[in-house]
Structures are given as structure tokens and as C-alpha cells.
Amino acid sequence: MGRPPVLPVDKKLGLVIRVMSGELTAAEAAREAGVSEQSVSNWRRQFIEGGRNGLAGDGGRHTEEASRMAELAQENAMLKTTIGELYMELRKYGRSTAVRPPQRREGTRPGRLVN
């Protein structure tokens, strides 16, 4: 069987509630949504686990993770901007004749000091 179509969360929630209330069986809900019965069972399990985590006090975990992800995305953007600015500085100096990379002298070996 191919990958089931992506359904909106609200539609999944409605089907799971109807299954849990006894209005529909998992097989009927699956036919209505055009997915496998296993998918409906997975949604039901995820719904129950989410409620259990919420009652256990883990409800804020996802908001903490989301805020951390937003913080990391902001830091990533700042670092990309900094790298871009440094790249432009390097290009500017690379084309300038005033600043040239150090030249290696003839007769010296790397790592040996010359006075």
C-alpha cells in the first residue's frame, strides 16, 4: 500500500474522537479518510499519549522545544550574516594591491626562523 494522503490535524482529531466515542470503528474511519486502519490506530494512540503527557506535567515541553528551536534559528541567521560579511571583507582585501599574502623566501624551510 502506498503512502497515505496527508490529512489536516483537525480531520484526524475528529475521526479519533468519533472512534473513541464508539460512533465509528477504526475500519470505518479509515475508509472515510482514505487511509489504512493502522493509521487510524496510530492517531488514536498518539492522541492518548499526548493527553497522558499533558496530565503528567509534560505539556510545556513542546513549547520549550519550540522556543529553543526559534532561538537556534535566530542564532543561525546571525552567524550566516556574519560569515557573509567576513566573506565580503576577504574578497575586498583579496583584490586590493595594498595587502598581499606573505611571500615565501627562497632558501628557507617551513618552520625555521630567519633572522
TrEMBL record:
Ranges for region Disordered: 94-115
A Pfam family assignment: HTH_28
Start and end residues of each Insertion element IS150 protein InsJ-like helix-turn-helix domain: 12-56
The organism's place on the tree of life at top rank: Bacteria
Official protein name in the record: Helix-turn-helix domain-containing protein
Species this chain originates from: Streptomyces coeruleorubidus
